[in-house]
């Protein structure tokens, strides 16, 4: 297709506001009479609350509200339909992690609120704690909830084919255990909220949140009101990477505002965000894989033990995702998986870019290299041999219309000079180089995540001057989704990109949408934009036909001009047709409404069913240099090739890949949330929790494979999560190529490198 807007690197729709500093985030908001909220958090990982005395705090001048559990509706709730409902707005009778919410204050300024926190007296009875999944499952371990004496929150099992038979027929069987760390999403904007109640008992909440519509339902239950009484507006958002789903601070802000009768704002400090955010779910992954001599994969078995933290955020679907999503990366037919999620006295864990697939891809792709080594095969050839083809139906019922993995692999191998570098490990005595490969698959939508419906919808409004406003329910959290939507709308309408205005999500105005997760934004949301744009376009052409007396099917629109198809003669402008429509419809603007329902299903009781409309793939190659004297690993070059279906905006795609690779480097080499024996987080800030800086990020070379998927908007697939999924495995495989030592746990720090070299 010869597109005029799609495929171009246009200026993002919000670039000027961000560059000029006029973009308003929640932390920038000021409402008349607004108070400032602060949260009192538990100093213990596990303790019984004996008494809370707020009387002194309440007497401090400027304090307008002090609340604890007794001041809330006291309704148990959870993030997912079907439970577990193990959340309360405040700790009820016990605290279960350092940072657990105990009380909160609203005052005329932050200093007064902080002073009031110091005057709240809480008496605790400290209890034994469990900090790791292995500790949690030990016999006689302290339990966090009386109704869960074994600390098990969730279990998941799936099996296809005959794994034992596959292993018996295999020429090589490899098994190992992997440990992935708990890591913080490190977004720029911390968790924040502004809340205001009106005279009719309706609350408006301004939140940086990825799921505005879904969270409205969860928050309504917690606040003891109907969903119609909760109004959420998502303004500009400073990143999320999966963390910004439901958050206790949002509800505490709403309860403070209800009691004070005035608007309240809460903004987490960075330390609070580390202590009480929702970092990545750490996992212990046992993997066993069998293959034939020719490299054909026969069977895979995994057992996963995941840390839920002190309450359930999204640990269950993350654990289940880790169990089965990678089974559609290669032609697996015999698979068996078990996932166990357990409570620990640590910060509750949740979504982080990759959603469990990242953890499992890391383990699988290291295992693929081990199989290749055992069979004396090139790792790239092993992956090419087992890649799923176009039109493949996976063992779990996934309909993979298009798979560009072979093309991604071929391009990455050629770009990186893989064949000349792999296995060479050049060394000058003090430093050694290596190169490593990893692939991934992912989804662009996840049907089981929200069972009531799947799909998307949007509204387009065209005024009398031809100005186009797009109103959608999805979530741009800084990744450029609104820009992609504007490009898609402009392409379908036939108008200049600059004429599109995209509104922030407002649950009172936008349709019911699912938000940003499962790399679904551009793919699923984009289809809703197309549906609305087509509806609006038909009305514009109808209006033009009335004015010109030319049949609608003989007219077309391009660059804001309506012309006759046969002759190419310009008939009128888009704006003139819009004006005619408005004036002949009593002032009613042109409105385009549309929705799209994908060919996905909620998996059945056997976990079988197509969960996503399209499936993206990627191949990454990392080149590292290991300092044999200091143990420092320097990623010197990186190649990332992605099957994106259709390129909507090249620069935004490249930015997504660069961000994903940078985050993956941190996860692989430096990042880990460390606790002492009492459950105190030892590195709750960027001084001690080290994310990659400019000197840690290598040259990143990107390329894209366009497979033009029939279920994607104009053929497109998602990019967000695949950009990080293979990174850690590619780096760890490169480290092995450099120094001949395998690492099965993250992060691979200089200390661990030196220890391994010393042992070797």
Task: Note down, in words, how this protein is organized.
The chain is an alpha+beta fold. The protein is 28% helix and 24% strand. The strands form seven sheets. A seven-stranded mixed beta sheet has the order 3-5-1-12-9-10-11, sandwiched between helices. It is globular. 58% of the residues are buried.
Mean pLDDT: 97
- DSSP strand count: 28
In terms of structural class, how would the helical and strand content be classed?
alpha+beta
Strand sequence of the main sheet, in spatial order?
Answer: 3-5-1-12-9-10-11
Strand content: 15-25%
How widely separated are the two ends? 56 Å
Stretches where pLDDT is under 50 for at least 5 consecutive residues are none
Number of DSSP helices? 19
Helicity range of the residues? 25-40%
In this structure, how is the largest beta sheet organized?
7 strands, mixed
Quickly list its features.
globular, single chain, five-stranded mixed beta sheet, alpha+beta, 760 residues, seven-stranded mixed beta sheet
What secondary-structure arrangement, pairings included, does this model have?
Layout: H1 15-20, E1 35-41, E2 47-53, H2 55-58, E3 63-67, E4 94-95, E5 101-107, H3 110-118, E6 121-126, H4 133-136, E7 152-160, H5 163-169, E8 172-180, E9 192-197, E10 203-206, H6 212-223, E11 230-233, H7 248-260, E12 264-267, H8 270-276, E13 283-291, E14 297-309, H9 315-324, E15 334-343, H10 357-375, H11 379-386, E16 392-393, E17 399-400, H12 405-416, H13 418-421, E18 431-441, E19 456-462, E20 468-471, H14 481-493, E21 500-502, H15 521-548, E22 555-558, E23 561-564, E24 570-573, H16 574-583, E25 590-596, E26 617-627, E27 633-643, H17 650-669, E28 699-705, H18 727-739, H19 750-759
Parallel strand pairs: 1-12, 10-11, 14-15, 20-21, 27-28
Antiparallel strand pairs: 1-5, 2-4, 2-6, 3-5, 7-15, 8-13, 9-10, 9-12, 13-14, 16-17, 18-26, 19-20, 19-25, 22-23, 23-24, 26-27
């Amino acid at each position: 297709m010869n597109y005029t807007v799609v495929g171009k690197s246009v200026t993002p729709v919000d670039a000027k506001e961000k560059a000029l500093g006029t973009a308003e985030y929640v932390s920038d908001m000021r409402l008349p009479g607004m108070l400032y909220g602060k949260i009192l958090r538990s100093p213990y990982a596990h303790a019984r609350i004996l008494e809370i005395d707020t009387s002194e705090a309440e007497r401090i001048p400027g304090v307008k509200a002090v609340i604890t559990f007794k001041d809330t509706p006291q309704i148990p709730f959870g993030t997912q339909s079907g439970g577990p409902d193990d959340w309360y707005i405040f700790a009820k009778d016990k605290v279960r992690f350092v940072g657990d919410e105990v009380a909160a204050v609203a005052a005329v300024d932050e200093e007064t609120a902080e002073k009031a926190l110091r005057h709240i007296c809480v008496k605790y009875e400290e209890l034994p704690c469990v900090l790791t999944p292995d500790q949690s499952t030990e016999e006689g371990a302290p339990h966090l909830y009386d109704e869960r004496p074994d600390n098990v929150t969730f279990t998941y099992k799936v099996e296809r084919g005959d794994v034992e038979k596959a292993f018996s027929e295999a020429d090589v069987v490899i098994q190992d255990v992997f440990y992935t760390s708990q890591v913080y999403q490190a977004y720029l904007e911390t968790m924040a909220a502004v809340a205001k109640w009106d005279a009719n008992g309706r609350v408006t909440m301004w939140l940086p949140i990825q799921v505005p519509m879904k969270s409205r339902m969860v928050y309504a239950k917690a606040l003891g009101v109907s969903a119609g009484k909760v109004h959420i507006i998502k303004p500009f958002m400073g990143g999320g990477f999966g963390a910004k789903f439901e958050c206790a601070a949002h509800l505490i802000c709403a309860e403070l505002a209800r009691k004070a009768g005035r608007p309240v704002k809460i903004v987490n400090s960075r330390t609070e965000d580390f202590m009480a955010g929702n970092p990545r779910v750490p996992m212990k992954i046992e993997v066993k894989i069998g293959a034939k001599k020719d490299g054909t994969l026969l069977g895979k078995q995994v057992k996963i033990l995941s840390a839920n933290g002190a309450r359930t955020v999204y640990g269950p679907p993350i654990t289940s995702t880790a169990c089965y999503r990678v089974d559609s990366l290669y032609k697996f037919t015999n698979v068996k998986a078990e996932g166990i999620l357990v409570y620990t006295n640590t910060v509750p864990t949740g979504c982080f870019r990759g959603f469990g697939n990242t953890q499992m891809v890391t383990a699988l792709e290291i295992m693929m290299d081990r199989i290749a080594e055992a069979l004396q095969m090139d790792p790239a050839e092993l992956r090419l041999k087992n890649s799923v083809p176009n039109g493949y139906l996976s063992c779990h019922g996934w309909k993979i219309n298009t798979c560009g993995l072979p093309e991604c692999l071929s391009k990455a191998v050629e770009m990186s000079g893989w064949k000349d570098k792999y296995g060479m490990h050049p060394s000058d005595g003090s430093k050694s180089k290596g190169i490593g490969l990893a692939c991934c698959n992912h989804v662009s939508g996840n049907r089981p995540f929200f069972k009531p419906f799947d799909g998307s919808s949007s509204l387009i409004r065209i005024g009398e001057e031809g100005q186009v406003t797009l109103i959608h329910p999805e979530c741009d959290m800084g990744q450029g989704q609104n820009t992609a939507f504007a490009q898609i709308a402009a392409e379908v309408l036939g108008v200049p990109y600059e004429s599109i205005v995209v509104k922030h999500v407002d649950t009172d105005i936008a349709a019911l949408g699912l938000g940003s997760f499962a790399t679904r934004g551009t793919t699923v949301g984009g289809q809703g934009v197309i549906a609305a744009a087509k509806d609006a376009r038909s009305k514009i052409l109808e209006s033009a036909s009335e004015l010109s007396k030319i049949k609608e099917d003989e007219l077309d629109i391009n660059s804001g001009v309506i012309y006759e198809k046969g002759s190419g003669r310009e008939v009128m402008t888009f704006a003139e047709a819009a004006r005619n429509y408005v004036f002949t419809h009593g002032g009613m603007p042109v409105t385009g409404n549309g929705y799209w329902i994908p060919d996905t299903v909620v998996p059945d009781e056997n976990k079988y069913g197509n969960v996503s409309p399209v499936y993206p793939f990627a191949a990454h190659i990392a080149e590292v240099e290991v300092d044999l004297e200091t143990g420092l690993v320097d990623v010197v070059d990186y190649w990332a090739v992605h099957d994106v279906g259709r390129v909507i905006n090249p620069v935004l795609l490249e930015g997504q890949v660069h961000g994903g690779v940078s985050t993956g480097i941190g996860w692989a080499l430096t990042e880990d949330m460390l606790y002492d024996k009492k459950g105190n987080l030892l590195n709750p800030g960027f001084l001690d929790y080290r994310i990659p800086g400019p000197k840690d990020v290598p040259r990143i070379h990107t390329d894209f494979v366009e497979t033009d998927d029939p279920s994607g908007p104009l053929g497109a697939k998602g990019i967000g999560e695949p950009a990080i999924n293979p990174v850690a495995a590619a780096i760890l495989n490169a480290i092995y190529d450099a120094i001949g030592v395998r690492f099965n746990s993250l992060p691979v720090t200089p200390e661990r490198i030196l220890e391994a070299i010393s042992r070797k």
